[in-house]
């Protein structure tokens, strides 16, 4: 179990460059190890581990083309079992239900407040530390 | 010598009657005609026989021949007169039948009596006292009393026939009953004269025979008319449209099969009756109004009616027209109705489908727009928020490192621009593309929209009155104005739909107002709009309809105001309903405003 934010890696998959950069800055400023990807495929190609406690995926599930939701399934197929926090600019019942069914641990609608997001990351990675 | 002439005349008369028998016999041969036609042929034949026997009687001089002649004369007359009540019963459809049939049996029994009574003897003397008294040397007594009884029976049948014809004529059926009635009257006068002769009251010997001639001609013509009517009826029965003819008192004169089948009526029962008698308890306002219009205008009237038939609600397109006599007086009017229910239902279905589709389309389009708009806007907002919060954290952690903060602020500014660009694009997308404003006849534009909605209004029992002045030329965007009209009219139809049938009225006017602007108004007879709601009518997302989106009138206002017009609503108080009006500058004032602009530019 990680005891420090710098031990936790957060992967961000979002097709919007500006959103990627802002999340990178935010999570970086909060002390996490951050890696951003502009498409699910790039993330899947880059992942070299199977299971670890100390990382999580922030996944935009409303992306054009290869939808974010499918990414979770493809991850599971490859045996990659890391907690997923779904982010979506579309906040409706269907999207929420789909996210839950596909196995996202949490769902946030965009824009997301930094405090809530950071707490969620700590929660899914079981990081026992308070950001203050 | 006079006897010779008399006998010849009788022969000629017999020939005429024989021709009548032949004519009517031929008419009824192999065709389905009323039985009265055949009975009339038989009657003619027997009368011809009777007259021939009478003529022959004048040529015989022997006593026995004269006696036999008398007998044959009375027997043939009796047989002819026995057929007469049958004919009249068939012809006039008089009820009850049995007294008339009894009358003809009575006449037949007399004929038998004449055949059976001996020429001489006490019985003969007893039965014929008057004849014996006058001509004691010629004991041709027996038939006389019986003949008198026969003639009395005949007069009874004739009077009854006259009354029956009068009833039928009064009940509005064609003139042929009048003709037969008059013929019968002539015949009756002749018969009465013959009776007077028998009773020694006057010597009227040729009157009876002569009275038969006009009677035959009139009757023959009238009965022959029946054959022509049948032929016309056959034609009418094969027309799919419903055809009726009514007299001035709105009593049916005839109806074709399509009509009687539709309403399950009996043709015989229909004649001489009115709509009220035939369709008790039905709302006949529309058809009565149309009938009245036909009479008062003396011209064709076309209507669309909604009627209740045994098969359910039917929609009829009816054309009513007056029928003139030779003096140019209306004596009847015809009505040809076409059942347009099927096409109306198809219209209705298409309409409902269209309405559902447009509504669905609008809802889904709005839904899609708002969803994609939300998604598009959320992205820059997400970035802005995260950037701002990251900036705060950076400032907290490294208060002096300016470069990351500069990047953050640059991104925030870019995302704010992006968000505003999204909103701008959306606004451009939904804004009406400006299209050329052309001088246009607004009356024509209104007429087109009304024509488009004509079927729907008829369907919903809405009476639409239009008053469109010709020269309503305004410089406007015609399709947009028509969209406004469509909206107002659909609202009006919706408003009056709940009113009882007969008070669903929509009046549409297009005229020039006192300032010279073109004003179009749509007035409905609905339940009206409370004064407190009036000012909110044109506000977006305000609707009085549960299923409404509340954008119709808001869009109308936008369209009209973009074109320098004005739109407003007013209550019809004290009458029910609401009137929506809009004005558009007439063509000239448009030029005036252009000139004003030109001055503005120079100054």
Automatic annotation (TrEMBL), chain A:
<dbReference type="GO" id="GO:0000160">
    <property type="term" value="P:phosphorelay signal transduction system"/>
</dbReference>
<feature type="modified residue" description="4-aspartylphosphate">
    <location>
        <position position="60"/>
    </location>
</feature>
<dbReference type="InterPro" id="IPR011006">
    <property type="entry name" value="CheY-like_superfamily"/>
</dbReference>
<protein>
    <submittedName>
        <fullName>Response regulator receiver protein</fullName>
    </submittedName>
</protein>
<feature type="domain" description="Response regulatory">
    <location>
        <begin position="9"/>
        <end position="125"/>
    </location>
</feature>
<keyword id="KW-0597">Phosphoprotein</keyword>
<dbReference type="Pfam" id="PF00072">
    <property type="entry name" value="Response_reg"/>
</dbReference>
<dbReference type="InterPro" id="IPR001789">
    <property type="entry name" value="Sig_transdc_resp-reg_receiver"/>
</dbReference>
<dbReference type="InterPro" id="IPR050595">
    <property type="entry name" value="Bact_response_regulator"/>
</dbReference>
TrEMBL record, chain B:
<feature type="transmembrane region" description="Helical">
    <location>
        <begin position="144"/>
        <end position="165"/>
    </location>
</feature>
<dbReference type="GO" id="GO:0005524">
    <property type="term" value="F:ATP binding"/>
</dbReference>
<dbReference type="GO" id="GO:0000155">
    <property type="term" value="F:phosphorelay sensor kinase activity"/>
</dbReference>
<feature type="transmembrane region" description="Helical">
    <location>
        <begin position="69"/>
        <end position="89"/>
    </location>
</feature>
<keyword id="KW-0812">Transmembrane</keyword>
<feature type="transmembrane region" description="Helical">
    <location>
        <begin position="101"/>
        <end position="124"/>
    </location>
</feature>
<keyword id="KW-0418">Kinase</keyword>
<dbReference type="InterPro" id="IPR036097">
    <property type="entry name" value="HisK_dim/P_sf"/>
</dbReference>
<dbReference type="InterPro" id="IPR036890">
    <property type="entry name" value="HATPase_C_sf"/>
</dbReference>
<keyword id="KW-0902">Two-component regulatory system</keyword>
<feature type="domain" description="Histidine kinase">
    <location>
        <begin position="372"/>
        <end position="588"/>
    </location>
</feature>
<dbReference type="Pfam" id="PF00512">
    <property type="entry name" value="HisKA"/>
</dbReference>
<keyword id="KW-0547">Nucleotide-binding</keyword>
<keyword id="KW-0597">Phosphoprotein</keyword>
<dbReference type="InterPro" id="IPR003594">
    <property type="entry name" value="HATPase_dom"/>
</dbReference>
<keyword id="KW-1133">Transmembrane helix</keyword>
<dbReference type="InterPro" id="IPR005467">
    <property type="entry name" value="His_kinase_dom"/>
</dbReference>
<feature type="transmembrane region" description="Helical">
    <location>
        <begin position="177"/>
        <end position="199"/>
    </location>
</feature>
<feature type="transmembrane region" description="Helical">
    <location>
        <begin position="39"/>
        <end position="57"/>
    </location>
</feature>
<keyword id="KW-0808">Transferase</keyword>
<dbReference type="Pfam" id="PF08448">
    <property type="entry name" value="PAS_4"/>
</dbReference>
<feature type="region of interest" description="Disordered">
    <location>
        <begin position="584"/>
        <end position="603"/>
    </location>
</feature>
